[in-house]
Amino acid sequence: MQRIRLRYTKRGRLRFTSHRDFQRAFERALRRAEVPMAYSAGFTPHPKVSYANAAPTGTGSEAEYLEIALAAHRDPERLRALLDESLPTGLDIVDAVEAHTSGLADRLTASVWELRLAGQDPTEAENAVAAFNAAESVEVRRTTKNGVRTFDARPAVVQLETQSETADRPTDQPCAILRLVVRHVTPAVRPDDVLSGLRAVADLAPPVPAEVTRLAQGLLDEETGTVTDPLAPDREAAEALSKAEPTAAATVPA
């Protein structure tokens, strides 16, 4: 059984799709692309697909991950292209590697987010970010199915800073852009929790809802605060195997 790990995106209007919506679309894409899926055992077999840490509904993402198990071997890049063609534009399969290591979910320990606050004065946002970073704790409230929950959002935030407007996203109105690096902890601290924290410490209230995009997801390097590519270990293992195969073949006696 071959395992393939995929990175996909949620862009444009499709950022409003729920995780269940994506699951349905992806399973249809598997059938359209005639992927030889491995199935679970039991009375109701289902394709072996493992989803990892999906972004909240309403947020865009450049770094969502899943793993599929195949009953027959396929080239990862060819499989990626077939699946991408079978999905709507905005749900794009952008990377694929064969799994040579275990624990993909264990390597998703942090995320990098971009928060675009249209209509928000950048100076006010910068002052609010400074107040958040200086605080020892930032209590926020979140409504759950079990009622209102209060928790400290500050320890999960590795980095929070303002950024300048990019040339490819010009705007004729004020726009504050925040870059957030957050650890995956329990309870999960989401970008909207950080926005609630900014409101709590500095009364920052953007005039319109923030446009939120996950830029990266992976293993957190505690020394540098960077988030590394979770598929890199599989690429390195595949490269090591490809280098070892010719050597092994050369040692086989004629």
Question: Could you describe the 3D structure shown?
Answer:
The chain has 254 residues and is α+β, with helices and mostly antiparallel strands. The protein has five helices and eleven strands. It has helices spanning 19-32, 76-86, 122-134, 191-202, 232-251, and strands at residues 2-10, 49-52, 60-70, 93-98, 110-118, 139-144, 147-152, 157-163, 175-183, 211-220, 227-228. Strands 1, 2, 3, 4, 5, 8, 9, 10 and 11 form a nine-stranded mixed β-sheet that branches. A two-stranded antiparallel ribbon has the order 6-7. Helix 1 (19-32) crosses helix 2 and helix 3 (122-134) crosses helix 4 (191-202). The longest helix has 20 residues, at 232-251. The protein starts with a strand and ends with a helix. The model has no long low-confidence stretch (mean pLDDT 92).
Strand composition percent: 25-35%
N-to-C terminal Cα separation, in Å?
A: 31 Å
Q: How large is the radius of gyration? A: 21 Å
Helix content bin: 25-40%
Low-confidence stretches: none
The count of β-strands is 11
Global outline: elongated
Mean pLDDT: 92
Strand-pairing-aware structural class: alpha+beta
H/I helix tally: 5
The sequence of SSEs as H and E is EHEEHEEHEEEEHEEH
- What's the story with the biggest beta sheet? 9 strands, mixed
